[in-house]
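Our working data are protein records whose layout never changes between entries. An example says more than a description, so a record of this kind follows.
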Amino acid sequence: MSKLLYLDNAATTKTAPEVVEAMLPYFTEKFGNPSSVYSFAAANKEVINQQRDAIAEMIGAKTNEIYFTGGGSESDNWALKCTAEAYANKGNHIITTKIEHHAILHTAEYLEKRGFEITYLDVDEDGKVKLDDLKAAIRPTTILISVMFANNEIGTIQPIKEIGEIAHEHGILFHTDAVQAFADNVVLLVDVAVGDDPQRLDLSADHGDDDEHDRHEHQHDQREHRVLAHGQQHAAEKQHRYRHDAAGEHRRDP
């Protein structure tokens, strides 16, 4: 049998041996539902809280600003759909790019059908957003800018810090899909993460568990979709879990 030469790590990675070792007890022995009240399960809740603390410390966030979701698509869906719902009284315009992940593009199409206006920015020959085009696209009704940190197909790293600064100058929320960039750009991610902007991280693209995804959102404004953010791994996450017919197919993200 020929040896496999795997070159698609941008899509997903082999789970690192140390991750398998750390997770194995929770697949075989410590399998209790962390939301249950009995001690066998409650111990798992403490483990989840410890991991939440570790991620928060890594990116300079507060523990209660870290939300775990069932997958990367859900995280992107949640960021766009819930921001649109919560800020609909302030505006209906969202800016993104033509080279975003389908989790963003399909959600944008979903929102367009519900009265939101979406600007899809072109990119230059290197796949980068032109900052002048971004500035020109901003309207008084713009409520969100969503630009992927590092592209999962061509590897382009966007000028994310500059985009974040532009968003903040205009009082606009800024969302970045940081899946491909997180492991190598933690310092830059922390530098960008000011205000109350959501980021999406996905550990399955960094030799982590395929079901281990994380969304970071600064707790500056208690938005509508965060009202039920307690119990059962945050009720809001379940309430806004994306639907198959709403914004694309159910899949595991890169």
About this structure: Helices lie at 17-28, 39-59, 72-86, 102-112, 131-137, 160-169, 186-192, 235-239. Confidence is low (pLDDT under 50) at residues 201-208, 218-254.
